[in-house]
């Protein structure tokens, strides 16, 4: 597996030698000072470009990042909304174990992302077109304190729908039971656990994914 430095050097070399790329920044767990490092961390890389069309048409452009095991084109998926003229993504799993979530986006699109995510870190800015970024922090992802109304609504929904689980079990309607657990009961339980952690830490942590 290529090291983090090897991957970043490769990404920057590609960007520096491609006149279409104006800037590069990284986000996600690799810029989070509180994230535990492990071999499964991917590289969330966004290249700021004038236009995305030439990258979309040049199918072999991504070959220079390494040998691929498999990949995904989110913008080509019929289940996802897209704006390919302003943003295009390749999700790449390499044979050496590294994963790269690579995006090309226009400046206006990139600036919106940066404004809403304080985990962004500039790797390259050829034209000084990106905003000055403070030190990366995961504060945007910290558990938010609930209102009293939020808390009681969540508890009520949890207990009410747990009754539906019992009803489904009695009827032996297992698909219904699993849907009720996975899409209603479990999310409410997770929310309550988040708040418990938040109160224990004065709402100064992220629980991660």
TrEMBL record:
InterPro entries: Aminoglycoside_adenylylTfrase, NT_sf
Any GO molecular function: nucleotidyltransferase activity
Keyword Nucleotidyltransferase: yes
Keywords: Nucleotidyltransferase, Transferase
Superkingdom: Bacteria
Name of the protein described by the UniProt record: Aminoglycoside 6-adenylyltransferase
Native species: Clostridium collagenovorans DSM 3089
Lineage: Bacteria, Bacillati, Bacillota, Clostridia, Eubacteriales
């Amino acid at each position: 597996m290529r090291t983090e430095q090897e991957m970043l050097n490769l990404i920057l070399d590609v960007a520096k030698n491609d006149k279409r790329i104006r800037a590069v920044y990284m986000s996600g767990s690799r810029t989070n000072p509180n994230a535990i490092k492990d071999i499964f961390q991917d590289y969330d890389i966004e290249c700021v470009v004038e236009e995305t069309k030439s990258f979309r048409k040049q199918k072999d452009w991504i070959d220079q990042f390494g040998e691929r095991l498999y990949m995904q084109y989110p913008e080509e998926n019929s289940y996802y909304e897209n704006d390919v003229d302003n943003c295009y993504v390749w999700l790449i799993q390499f044979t050496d174990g590294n994963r790269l979530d690579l995006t090309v986006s226009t400046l206006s699109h990139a600036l919106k992302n940066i404004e809403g995510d304080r985990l962004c870190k500039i790797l390259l800015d050829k034209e000084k077109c990106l905003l000055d970024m403070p030190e990366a922090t995961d504060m945007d992802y910290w558990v938010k304190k609930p209102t009293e109304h939020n808390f009681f609504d969540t508890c009520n929904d949890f207990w009410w729908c747990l009754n539906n689980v019992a009803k489904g079990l009695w009827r032996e309607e297992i698909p219904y039971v699993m849907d009720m657990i996975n899409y209603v009961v479990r999310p409410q339980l997770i929310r309550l656990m988040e708040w418990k952690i938040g109160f224990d830490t004065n709402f100064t942590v992220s629980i991660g994914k």
